[in-house]
C-alpha cells in the first residue's frame, strides 16, 4: 500500500465562487418570534454568513490544518485521506479515530495533541498514542463513493489501512457514525483491535431477550420522542438523500443552515451555539463540506443502513469496550442497555458535553481514552 503526502489546497476559483454565491443568497422570511423553533434562526444565519463573507479566513485555517501530517492512500479502489501523527512517549500505542456526521476529521484536531503528546498537556508520556484519523469515504478529502453500500465496508478499509501502516494491534475510538464503524471494527477484527472506546451505543432489545429494566424503558421512550421531534433529518438523508443534496450543494447558506442547526441542537451549549463553538470552527467544518462538495455523499451511510439487503445483524462485541456518555448527547443509554451487546469494561458518565465530544470536551475525552487503554497496551 502506497501513502502519498497530502496538503489541502482549495482552488481560489472555488473560494471566489463561494463568495459570489453568499452575496447572491435569496433569504427566506421567518415567523415573528420563531427563534430556533422552526429550524435555523434567520438572524443568526445571516450573521454567520456575513462573517463567512467578510471575516472568515479559510487560508489561515488551511495553513493550520496543513501543519498536521496528512496522507492519501488507495484502498479497494477508494482514495482515503488521513492524518498520521506519531506519539511522543516511550512506546506509543496505535489508535484509530473515526468521526461522525455532520463532522469531519477537523472535529478530532483538538484531541490529537492531548493523545499524541500527553506529557505536554499534564499527562504521562507512557500514555502516548500513534494516531490515525481518516476522512470517511464521502467526507472531506477522501473520495466520494460512486456505488451503494460502501459504508458497510468501512471497517474493512480501516483494518487494511492499519495493516498497511504496519500496525498489527491497535485501539479504535469514535462517536456517532464513527462509533458504529468503531464497534463493527471491534466485532469483525478482534485479532487486530485491542479494544474500542465509543461515545454512543448501537443495539436493540429483541423478542426472547431479557426484559428491559426501568432505566432501559425510559431510554427507549426517550429515543422514540427524540426521533419524532428531531429525527426528520435522518429520515430525509436515509430515504431521499439525492433530492436534499441539490439545494445544499448549490447554496452555501442552505448548507450552513443544515449543519449549524445540528451543532446547536446536539451540543451542550444551552441554546447559545457560540458558547461552545467559534464561528471560525463552525465555518471551517462547513467550508470543508462546501469546497469538497461532499454533503450529498455524507448522507449515503444513512441510505445504506436502511437499504442494504446484505447488512449483517448486530452481533455482540467481544473485545474490551469503554463507553463515555456525555449528558447532552442525542441519546444517553443506561449501562445495562450497552452491556447487552458491548463487553463493557469501562463506563464513564461525563459531567458536561454533548454529541461532538472531541470538539466540545477534548480534555475530558482524552483523559478517558488514556485511562481505558492504559491496561490494554
Low-confidence stretches: none
Name the strands of the widest sheet in spatial order: 1-2-3-5-4-6-7-8-9
Strand fraction: 5-15%
Using only CA atoms, what is the Rg? 20 Å
Shape type: globular
The CATH architecture would be 3-Layer(aba) Sandwich
**Averaging pLDDT over every residue, what do you get?**
97
Number of helices: 16
Note the run of SSEs as H and E: EHHHEEEHEHEHEHHHHHHHEHEHH
Helix content: 40-55%
Q: Could you tell me how far the N terminus lies from the C terminus, measured between alpha carbons in angstroms?
A: 26 Å
Q: Could you explain how this protein is built, in words?
A:
- There is one protein chain.
- This protein has helices at 12-23, 42-54, 58-65, 111-116, 154-164, 177-188, 214-230, 232-239, 241-250, 252-266, 279-292, 295-298, 300-307, 335-338, 357-360, 362-374, and strands spanning 4-6, 70-75, 78-85, 93-98, 129-134, 170-174, 193-198, 320-325, 343-349.
- With 377 residues, it is of the alpha/beta class.
- The protein has a nine-stranded mixed sheet, with helices on both faces.
- Helix 5 crosses helix 6 (177-188), helix 8 (232-239) crosses helix 13 (300-307) and helix 9 (241-250) packs across helix 10 (252-266).
- The radius of gyration is 20 Å and the shape is globular.
Question: How do the strands and helices of this protein lay out in sequence?
Answer:
Elements: E1 4-6, H1 12-23, H2 42-54, H3 58-65, E2 70-75, E3 78-85, E4 93-98, H4 111-116, E5 129-134, H5 154-164, E6 170-174, H6 177-188, E7 193-198, H7 214-230, H8 232-239, H9 241-250, H10 252-266, H11 279-292, H12 295-298, H13 300-307, E8 320-325, H14 335-338, E9 343-349, H15 357-360, H16 362-374
Parallel strand pairs: 4-5, 4-6, 6-7, 7-8, 8-9
Antiparallel strand pairs: 1-2, 2-3, 3-5
Helix pairs in contact: 2-10, 5-6, 8-13, 9-10, 10-11
